[in-house]
Amino acid sequence: MKLFYKPGACSLASHITLRESGMDFSLVGVDLAKKQLENGEDYWQVNPKGQVPALLLDDNILLTEGVAIMQYIADTKSDRQLLAPAGSITRYKTLEWLNFIATELHKGFTPLFRPDTPEDFKPTVRALLEKKFSYVNDALRDGEWISGARFTIADAYLFTVLRWARAVKLDLSGYKNIEAYMARVAARPAVTAALAAEGLN
């Protein structure tokens, strides 16, 4: 399998999930600005969406969208318990978190990364994100992981997205549960390996 990624982007969540799963894979870096692979090839020819992550399976089927990729990996390697079995309420609570992270946090950050976002709109974006950080901080009050007693694909995604706060100068120091959570996730061997492979600290 090949994972097409950009260091620190949302593809990091799929990268972490692959390492947690123990599956064999290789990494292919993508320059999203140029839509080019490391060897100069046109990324549009790989993924017509032009975004990361994309996972090229061994049978040459291309899977895109991080939430789908992570669910595929978790279900393929169900023994790693990165996602509870179908029919379990625990599974749907994890999917609930995945949807929240994708629609409320991930997309919430987008205007802060876009150069065409008006400066007078950015304080509104930041205020909305801070409300969502408070919700996440409260949710982590009594648990080690976001979706229950085990590390799941929701944790891989949440960790990835919350890392962006530093890039856009959003201070998470007031969210003590989030701070402790980020340290716990970062200490996992699979996460450490993924960060190192992407040249991140």
UniProtKB/TrEMBL annotation:
Domain spans labelled GST N-terminal: 1-81
Keywords: Transferase
Cited PROSITE patterns: GST_CTER, GST_NTER
The enzyme's E.C. designation: 2.5.1.18
Name the UniProt record assigns to this protein: Glutathione transferase GstA
NCBIfam families hit by this protein: PRK10542.1
GO MF terms, alphabetically ordered: glutathione transferase activity
Family indicated by similarity: Belongs to the GST superfamily.
Chain ranges of the GST C-terminal domain: 87-201
Gene: gstA
